[in-house]
Amino acid sequence: MRALLVEDEALVALIAEEILSSLGFEVEVAATGEEALKSALRATPDLAVIDMGLPDIEGDVLAAKVRDAAPVTAILIATGYEPASVREKLLGLSRVEILTKPYTDTDLSAAIGRLGLG
After folding, report:
1. Which pTM was predicted?
2. Which of 37, 48, 92, 100 could covalently link to 4 via disulfide, CB atoms 3.0 to 4.6 Å apart?
């Protein structure tokens, strides 16, 4: 399975990439929304893990664009914001989970499982 990891903090991206790889995903990392969209258009990911606070686009907006480009992709929004406020921004998108930062490998694995990919 293929995962697109969208994270602008290098250390967080490195750790999340290692966790996703250990779960059996082939991971492509993007640091910006623009890079992520190019990747999603090039090859449809099974999972997109998207940071809510990217430098060029908000995670909820990127999630909608990824969903348009790759309708079958499950989406996991990683955020340090209050989950309820993030959930409001994601109304209308299916197969979306919210993962509160900081998260552990167990948290990430459980969220992926709730999306039906575990």
Report:
1. 0.95
2. 48
